[in-house]
Amino acid sequence: MSKLNKNKKDLSFSFLNRIMIVQFVLMLILSLFITQKVSKHTKESATAQLSAIANERALIVSEFVGNAESKLELFATSPEIIAMMENTGDRNAVIEAQKCTERFAQQITGVEGLYTATWSAKFLTHSSISAVGKVFRTDEDLSELQSSIMANKDVIYNAGILVSPISSNKVMSLYKGVYSDSGKPLGIVGLALDADVIMNKLSSIKAPGLENSTYTMMDVVKAAYVFDQDDPNNAGQPVVLPDLTRTCDEYRNGINTEISTTYEYALPHVGSFVGASVWMPERNWILMMNDQMSEVYKLVYSMRTFLGIFSALILALMILFAFLNKKQEKVNMKLVASVERMNQAKHSLNAAMFNDVLTEVGNRVKMTISLSDVTDGQTNPYFFAMFNLADFSSINTAFGSDTGDEMLVRTAKQLTDSFPNGSVFRTGSDEFVVMVRTENGSPRSDTMIADVDNALRILTAPQNIDGVGMLYPKYKVAVIKKNTGIDASIITILKEMTNAKGEAVVGMIDFSDLTE
Fold it and tell me: What CATH architecture does domain 362-513 belong to?
């Protein structure tokens, strides 16, 4: 009888162990599945964030240079400058032009030199008075400059990074020709921007989680560096790295026309990196933002470590259970508790992965997953509306990040209230997308536009912020209707529409019907 009981015990123990082994295998597979899925979406979110920040930085550079070009354009058409160019022998005209030069120079950020010169490159006026009378170009260099200015007669000619003949510093040189009524060149106006100012402007703006990121910008036409944060001495020098020269060639020859791309690369003895590049076709520049892979994918690695430790814990528990035959019930309870903890951890990870922590609406990853569930060609079209908080970086700079966060939370709440039958996602630092599915033709396009107008009217109402004062929010808004090809490219389409249209006005929302 005793032997029979022992056999029953052994059989029970063996059966229980099999169950535990099966449970362990299932848990391990589930952990690996969660790790892979979460890692994939987290990496996509991280690279999307890097790309969005790179695009924002490219806009900062473009606006900075564009502002300088606008100032130079105004300077070139100033009455004092025109009067002097038409009669350089008039002493009074020269004096007035010098005053005008100094006045304009004070209005330009990062100016190294603002000047006027004869067509033969002799300074007539200069923001640094000691430079007046000097010649800054001769012979072939002068002929090349004159040809470039004439070829860009109606616009500002940007010569890229050069060495200043006055200070010997690296400067970005801008030129504009001044012409008589008959089209004969009278002289040159020029502006030299300190290249370090542009670099420092980018370096001073730190992105959360990307504090060690660096920037490089190239002129694809010249295949030369505009600036390089890793090696400032590269400014103005030819690009020599094969990958970068190939990139310049592809954009210059029209082989590659992508506005924004992300990539990964490794440097021997240095480490692995993730980068995002932005093509600026209006200037033939490429801005690249690079950071160490360990920093960009920090959350991915943390999740993998956590789930690895969790899997190791399960393994340790299973080994322990195999040796505790007399405590099977207690072991089973611990196993159930472990499963519950894993499910809770999975729920917490999903919530953190798919929802924006600040505004509590869905994030870009969640929107991508939602779009992947839409059947292509289905009969019910979708409306997508983007609300982009205009000049958001200025709000943070002027009023602080707390005010910026408050504006983002307010935007998300109002969009959720305005579109109760839709889904709201935060797809970028300052942009939100509303997704509304039609049912039996409802809502119609005019109804959707009316709802968007109403939401915009509420969002742009002046806000009295405690401790700050009145704030007047502005938004860029675009709406599209689509029933096929519904994927993440919708965000790109909406961005292009908002960027092209600019600040939104109630009653004049940019709408495009892309249904087939």
Answer: 2-Layer Sandwich (3.30)
